[in-house]
Amino acid sequence: MLTDTVADMLTRVRNANMALHDTVEMPSSKLRAHIARVLEAEGYISGYEVREEKVGATLIIDLKYDSQRKRVISGLRRISKPGRRVYADRTSIPRILGGMGIAIMSTSSGIITGHEAKQRGIGGEVLCAVW
Description:
Elements (H helix, E strand, L loop, with lengths): L4 H14 L4 E5 L2 H12 L3 E8 L4 E7 L12 E3 L8 E2 L13 E6 L2 E4 H7 L3 E7 L1
Antiparallel strand pairs: 1-3, 2-3, 4-8, 5-8, 6-7, 6-8
């Protein structure tokens, strides 16, 4: 049985974030690494690393908290699922919490935020929402 890589990644990050862990490890893939790059660029995580192992690679994500140990990531939600893909053209890219969150999209230009896709005038598959 194939696992859904994005849903698995979001579940691991959500669980580690709720348990106030500093890092979370998971098997790495190009898609997961690109999503981690977007999360780091938007300030939701403090960093990530892809570590090559004997068999495969491991993605290590450093979660981010403020000085009172309050979570930076309030929520993560998978939007496009294997049974129901959700696509948005350049005019119907969703706004998450009125612009307070981000939509992560898979486009012809790679994995980017919904805001960046709107600026470039391109659409694509809406993978998840982060706020």
